[in-house]
Hints:
By secondary structure, the chain is mainly alpha-helical. 50% of the residues lie in helices and 11% in strands. The chain has a domain at 54-111: 434 Repressor (Amino-terminal Domain) (Orthogonal Bundle).
Amino acid sequence: MAIVRRKLSELESIELPTRYKRPTEAQIQKWKNEDGDENFEFDDFRFVCNVNVRALRERLGLTQEEFARRYRFPLRSVQEWEQGRKRPAPGTMTLLLAISRKPKALADALS
């Protein structure tokens, strides 16, 4: 597991669906206030956690099928992450990070 610090300008841009409407500054400020983050300042850096899925799976002593079944991932996704064809989504990366730290707790929670 490595934590990489990158400038936002170095991250790849995301294409949004045409029907997606970007929030206005007023909406963003309203949400910050609701969340208690009104003083939050987003700097030009962001932490991106990368979890090596193959190393994690092998450390747990699981096959791809067992890993996918235990943590409820599609088998094809696990294969593509390990082969580098795709990267896990941010939410999935958070789950993988949690699995790397507390694998038994996550497996119990999902059973």
